[in-house]
Write a structure and sequence with these properties.
Blueprint (H helix, E strand, L loop, with lengths): L3 H35 L6 H14 L6 H19 L3 E5 L5 H10 L4 E5 L2 H9 L5 E8 L3 E2 L1 H9 L3 E9 L3 E3 L9 E4 L1 H6 L1 H7 L4 E4 L3 H10 L3 E5 L1 H7 L3 E3 L9 E8 L10 E8 L6 H10 L5 E8 L7 E8 L5 H13 L2 E9 L3
Helix pairs in contact: 1-3, 2-3, 11-12
Length: 354
């Protein structure tokens, strides 16, 4: 079969795609100019998610939903970079799951800055050293990340987006499986692979590391040492993968949040809002704090209690609800809450992703 006619058609389509992309970039530049004059943010996750939903509606295939989103993620990333190159701080070091999440959300164009601790990420955004920050907030099997929860209570930063990343742990080492004497990783990763390690490496010592990336570095330098980490870490540090997807639960997902200094605009109709409440120490106080939502048909998707760190046995309640802060029903519920709760703090509203 002569493939030249098909290749000629592909070349013609590619030329058309490039021409249309440049036309789109010019139009996007005009929109960005108007935004800047009005003091509006260039990066708007709600608008992006609304665009993705529209594209999904018109995508008839064979391009997959995931493939379409990946392509447009990079198109949007390149357009934003033309107007205002972004700096993104994230919980490092490099090649961690948090970096994967940040790149999934912002694409390849921003400058990514790994920082040592979650408070460091919050501080970088607060001081203007980074436009946005990315930190983990909870895992579907391991629960909440306490440092992130505590920092949300203590700072004025806003949650402007969320990222869900499937966690697929790999066993990474220069040594063969039968020669591995130690397995290094974050305590959460070791816990998520406990049963697999007990079956396949029952005599290997499990060692907690500061990060999965640090564990991979050590595995690359030390005979008989393996790491639990992502495939990205294996590629970044040049240490081979021995086994893939060894986590005990087939579907383990970590939720990350994107931090900003200011909210980025109104709702999309598919939004979630995060709040912190404190309640009075009296019978029925928690029930009374939930009623303003349930009485208005507002779905509460999460409630988590944390010690406030202000005084002994004083608790804060972290709540996620469906809806946007600016929604009429949400505002009515918050007004009622403020009449009976010592503290009601809005943490942010952000798009819900399918």
């Amino acid at each position: 079969m002569d493939l030249n006619p098909v290749r000629d058609k592909i070349d013609a389509i590619d030329r058309e795609i490039i021409a249309k992309l440049n036309e789109r970039f010019r139009l996007a530049h005009e929109v960005a100019r108007v935004k800047q004059e009005a003091g509006l943010p260039i990066y708007h996750p709600g608008r992006e998610e609304a665009l993705m939903r529209k594209l999904s509606d018109v995508n008839t295939g064979p391009l997959s939903e995931a493939g379409m989103r990946a392509i447009y993620r990079e198109i949007i990333s390149a357009m934003i970079a033309l107007e205002e190159p972004l700096t993104i701080a994230y919980l490092g070091p490099e090649a961690t799951y948090t970096e994967q999440a940040a790149r999934k959300n912002f694409g390849a164009q921003p400058k990514y800055v790994p920082l040592a601790t979650i408070p460091d990420v919050f501080a970088a955004v607060e001081k203007g050293e980074a436009h946005h920050g990315v930190v983990p907030i909870e895992n579907s099997t391991g629960g909440v990340v306490s440092h992130s929860m505590d920092m949300l209570a203590e700072t004025d930063l806003t949650i402007i987006n969320q990222i869900f990343l499937p966690i697929e742990h790999c066993l990474i080492s220069n040594s063969a499986l039968e020669d591995i004497k130690e397995v290094h990783s974050k305590d959460q990763a070791l816990a998520q692979c406990r049963d697999w390690l007990a079956r396949h490496l029952p005599h290997a010592k499990q060692v907690d590391a500061d990060s999965t990336a640090q564990a991979v570095k050590l595995a690359g330098e030390t005979e008989g040492v393996a790491a639990l980490a992502s495939e990205l870490a294996s590629e970044r540090y040049g240490v081979p993968v021995i086994k893939r997807n060894i986590q005990d639960v087939a579907i383990s997902v970590t939720r990350f949040i994107v931090l900003g200094r200011e909210p980025v605009g109104g709702g999309t109709g598919h939004d979630r809002t995060s709040l912190i409440l404190s309640i009075n120490d009296e019978p029925g106080a928690l029930e009374n704090a939930i009623k303003p939502f349930s009485s208005r048909g507002i779905n509460m998707t999460k409630i988590e209690s944390r010690l406030s760190r202000r005084k002994a046995w004083d608790y804060l309640f972290y709540i996620d609800i469906d809806g946007h802060w600016e929604d009429e029903a949400v505002q009515a519920a918050v007004t009622e809450l403020k009449a009976g709760c010592p503290l009601v703090k809005w943490l942010g509203s952000y798009p819900v992703k399918d």
